[in-house]
Amino acid sequence: MTAADDPGAVPVRDPADGRRMSAFREAVRLEGERVVVRPFDLDDAAALIEVIRAGEDVLPPTFPRELKAETLAWWLDRGVHQPQRYGTGVHLAVADRLTGAFAGTIGLFRLDWSHLSCEVGYGMRPSWRGRGYATEALTLVSEWALRTCGLHRVELRAVTGNRASLRVAEKAGFRREGVARGAERGPGGEHLDQVVFSLLRPDLDEARGGEAPRLIGVGVGPGDPELVTAKAVRILGEADVVLVPVMALEEEGRAESVVRAYTGKAERVVFALNDRGGVTDRRAAAWDAAADRVVRAFRDGARTVAFATIGDPNVYSTFTYLAQTVRERLPEAVVETVPGITAMQDLAARSGTVLAEGAESVGLVPLIGGVAGFRDALKTCDTVVAYKFGSVADEVVGALEEAGRLDDAVYGARLGLPGEDVRPARDLPRRVPYLSTLIVPGRRGPRGGKLA
User: Fold this and answer.
1) Disulfide: which of 180, 257, 333, 409 matches 440 by Cβ 3.0-4.6 Å?
2) Order of strands across the sheet with 90-96?
3) Do the Cβ atoms of 340 and 218 come closer than 8 Å?
4) pLDDT reading at 112 higher than 60
């Protein structure tokens, strides 16, 4: 590390925006191609003891210099995390992404929330130097500080003779500002000059060469955080802004509850999720307001905005309407999607129901407009999946009875959540929630579904 923070500093408040401080205080896990930047934990004890015994100068200045188990455990469990909790700094471990091996440290200190600035320092173990790990870790942490935490300036200082650190700063996009004469006292008491670098938030956009902003619809599954894909978790962590749809600002939505299992960046946008009757004024206003928020984020410097949606963003999702509106307002924006597990897949797994085999067809029908389409699907499709049928549950049961398929059908609601309800359709509850799913599997012989 190039400098220390003050572990006894008085807790500070962010006068501009409490969300910046909130984002800074959250547990940090940043993943690159080769490295992972993460909080220290008790599992790092053995590696840190090895570093101390080897005399490697890569640990934070607050690290205890005595190798007592109790002292080391306290530091890893509490001490190292105190600056982040107070909003004065953060110390993080740099690990190899493939093996998890401890490679070095990186941290932010001298945070000034009134001016939105900080200083960064890092140190890599000798055996991990020269591989680009320091550059990648520095890039990840700097972008996190500038984009996620809302800082404007990250400063870096390195002794003029430390060519490796100077090169790391340059490769990470930092700009040389000048030399601070005699700014660092060396191990022998001599005063050394430091090269001062900085990276500003606008520099990130310039460094990317005008890269088009990205709006990414991220499927987060039916509600169980364990069913979120690894790619979705990565995108949620990397995105500058994460939006989640809710029916009211004061109410947490299902997508938000899943997202918060992985990041605290979730920002609510109101969608008229329970409106009926086509493109109502309320629905249109909600789409416009959400699109305005996305465009504003891009104009404020965000390069990636993620929109989390239950299930899959391309299956009956609110995201498609948002994406269309954003395209109209910002044609240069790139729209992408990350697939998610749908409710029908989750219900099939939880109920042991096979969705399709062989040459069977599958009909997917939303019942918010009545059961006519459902009746037709029962006649023409092998497997039929019905969504959002709470308001017409009695009619659905009647249609199944008429088709002679009631005993085959399975119902599910609140999948993977407290109060999960999976049961035969014949035993539907008296009140069926809006977000409910029904699977009517194809009729199969002893060897399974029909084959071509």
Assistant:
1) 409
2) 30-31, 35-38, 90-96, 102-112, 117-124, 153-159, 191-200, 175-185
3) yes
4) yes
- Mean pLDDT over the full length of the chain: 87
What pLDDT, in 10s, does the model give residues 331-378?
Answer: 778 999 999 999 999 999 999 999 999 899 999 999 988 899 999 999
CA dist 362 and 177 (Å) reads: 63
* 214-341 classified as CATH 3.90.660.10: no
User: What superfamily does domain 18-207 belong to in CATH?
Assistant: Gcn5-related N-acetyltransferase (GNAT) (3.40.630.30)
Q: How do the domains of the chain map onto residue ranges?
A: 18-207, 214-341, 344-440
Look up residue 442 and give its DSSP letter: P
Q: Can you name the CATH fold of 344-440?
A: 3.30.950
pLDDT (tens digit per residue) in 418-427: 899 999 999 9
- Helix (H) / strand (E) element for 320: namely helix 319-329
pLDDT for position 335: 95
Residues contacting 163, CB < 8 A, separation 6+: none
* 62, 282, 290, 291 from 270: Cα distances, Å: 44, 10, 7, 11
Determine the Cα angle at 386 with ends 384 and 388, to 5°. Answer: 175
| CA-based nearest residue to 316, from 268, 264, 368, 381 | 368
- For residue 156, the model assigns a pLDDT of 97
Most confident of 4-13, 28-37, 198-207: 28-37
156 by Cβ neighbours in 10 Å (0-12 / 13-18 / 19+) ranks as buried
Could you tell me what percentage of the chain is helix, strand and coil, using 3-state DSSP and rounding each to the nearest 5? 35, 25, 40
Residue the block writes with tokens 């959002």: 388
In this structure, the dihedral spanned by the alpha carbons of residues 239, 240, 244 and 248, taken in order and rounded to 10 degrees, is: 170
Could you write out the DSSP letters of every residue in 62-80? TS-SS--HHHHHHHHHTGG
In the sheet where 410-413 sits, what is the strand order? 362-366, 383-387, 436-440, 410-413, 421-424
Residue 100 in tokens: 């998890």
CA trace torsion 181, 184, 190, 192 (10° rounding): -40
Q: Is 133 exposed, middle or buried (0-12, 13-18, 19+ CB in 10 A)?
A: buried
CB 80 within 8 A of CB 105: no
